[in-house]
Amino acid sequence: MSDRPEPTRARVGRALAALAVALSAVAAASLPADAAPDGGGGHGHDRACERRANNTYDKLLECVDAEGVFEHLEAFQQIADDNGGTRASGTPGYDASADYVASKLEQAGYQVTRQRFEFPYFEELADPVLEVVSPTPALLETGTFEFSGSGDVTGPVVPVDVNLDGDRASDSGCEPEDFAGLDLSGDADIALVQRGTCEFGVKALNAQEAGAEAVVIFNQGNDPGRLDLIVGTLGEQAAGAVTIPVVGASFDDGVTLSQPGTIAHVATETFLEFRTTENVIADSPWGDPDNVVMSGAHLDGVTAGPGINDNGSGSAALLEVALNMAKVHAPNKLRFAWWGAEESGLIGSWYYVDNLPQDELDRIALYMNYDMVGSPNYILMVYDADESTFAAADFGVEVPEGSTAIEDVYESFYTWLGVPYDDTAFSGRSDYQAFILNGIPASGLFTGAEETKTAEQAAIWGGTAGDWLDPCYHQACDTIDNVDRDAIEVNSDAMAFAALTFAYSTEDVNGVPGRRVPGRPFPLPDPAGPEGTFGGGDGGAGPAHGSR
To answer: What residues does 214 pair with on adjacent strands?
Structure first.
């Protein structure tokens, strides 16, 4: 690690302000004569970039830019506007998004596969209700767990093996025996279970089997990241099996509900049916099929909005990188993936991995994941492969050997730019999960979701302390106005740099010899190290993708 000092606010401001100048200067240093914009359609460099092999860092970084990414984001926004305001899997908006991506890739010469699969389509039809009826009436903040059933229940709250003191270690509701001796024989009993140890769906199914008519899952309270309202997914295995309402609560509200004699009211209205969606997979027609460099981003959003940052940002940036690398002809095969049904529990990426024979899995040298790379109140974060900040075991995973080499490329690139970055955990909330659990080295980029930006983080990255990193996360306001252009500029270049690096050599990852990228040498500095580990990269604390 470098001994570079912590940046001051002024130093960071200068670095960010100079970013565009630095990138254009590097590109211009060896820009060929035919690369000048020729006035053709699209953004400035389109036609020159389409004609040539962008097989040097200078050429590729000159071609991949925020303007090109925003053209794709505008297309996704228009698709959402034309299809009821959503691009969720199982809707016409998703189908049109997949058509857009596939057609662009086919025109560029990629071998495109559209992998269709069935998944449980879930929709919330009304806002959920969680309130204390007695002894002291109070309306509590809540949310519906994905794949919850519908219902309207008022009755006694029955705590299930909760631990409110000390270390607050919890396996509440994880075993059927946890419900032994509890009185759930009434017509309207509400089981109160605490987060911890096992998946939310296991807790809900056990409660339903024990006779509960509704379930409240409250946060564990064992660390600062597990105090607020928790809402997640019950998991694909619970879809259709859980027929009772399941809602979330904060730790403090869980304590309130656990008091003896509490009567509560829980109500949800949901819709579930099985629908068909697809992954879009694009292979370069060149490169070694036994050493595949893979990158992915989920293409779907939630039903509540157009999903332009989550995850139009990762999808659009990845598409722009792929289109500009179509003629590279590097030693290793490139594979790009746009996943469906990520918001329903990472279903598309798991379907892809589960249906690959082992010899095909063995051919994947590495996987790079891009989920939310343009958050408006962003932090630049890299998945913590070397576990310098987050212990992967805390999230039930082991980081495959070789992953640190991927992390180092991103971090060295950020260091070269003079841009601060932080770590984010392999917490299981995005599509890298299926890959790392199958031993495939991985890392990637993330700019934040519902984590709250601290004053320290705002001093380093700018933005607004006290707000979520993405204030429109999983909401109708996740439009094209919810994407930060500077974050896109930085991250699309980081994505392009990493893709080109590994297209030529994965030796640092899996030992397979390669070649140096053509063009002038582009030595990167050693990673400077995270510029502030203030909890900004907790990726596992909040709703949407969390499963336990």
So the answer is: 190
Q: How far is CA 298 from CA 168, 188, 220, 464, 493, in A?
A: 35, 39, 29, 27, 19
DSSP code, position 313: I
Name the residues annotated as catalytic.
Answer: 342
pLDDT band at 80 (very low <50, low <70, confident <90, very high): very high
CA atoms of 186 and 179, how far apart (whole Å)? 14
Count CA within 13 A, CB hemisphere, residue 299. 33
Q: Which amino acid is at 56?
A: T
Cβ proximity of 195 and 226 under 8 Å:
yes
Sign (positive or negative) of CA dihedral 27, 33, 37, 40: negative
Tokens encoding 484: 């930060």
What are the residues facing 282 on neighbouring strands?
Answer: 112, 336
Pairing state between β 332-339 and 364-370: unpaired
Of 433, 467, 451, the C-alpha closest to 381 is 451
Contact by Cβ (8 Å): 20, 420: no
What CA–CA distance (Å, rounded) separates 288 from 278?
26
255, 384, 446 from 165: Cα distances, Å: 10, 31, 34
> Which CATH number goes with the domain that contains 249?
3.50.30.30
pLDDT (tens digit per residue) in 402-443: 999 999 999 999 999 999 999 999 998 899 999 999 999 999
Alpha helices (H) in 428-484, listed in sequence order:
432-436, 455-461
Min mean pLDDT across 3-12, 73-82, 178-187, 527-536 is at 3-12
In a domain, residue 141? The reply is: yes
Our CA angle for 213, 188, 245, nearest 5°, is 35
* CA R_g for the chain: 24
Pair (243, 141) in one structural domain:
yes
| Chain position carrying tokens 């279970």 | 193
| pLDDT tens per residue, range 251-294 | 999 999 999 999 999 999 999 999 999 999 999 999 999 999 99
pLDDT digits (tens, 9 = 90+) for 109-139: 999 999 999 999 999 999 999 999 999 999 9
Helix 66-82 crosses helix 314-324 at what angle (to 10 degrees)? Answer: 130
Same domain, yes or no, for 200 and 297?
Answer: no
Mean pLDDT of 52-75: 97
In single-letter form, the type of residue at position 380 comes to: L
Residues spanned by the domain of 160: 121-273
Residue 45 to residue 47: CA distance in whole angstroms: 6
Strands 288-298 and 332-339: parallel
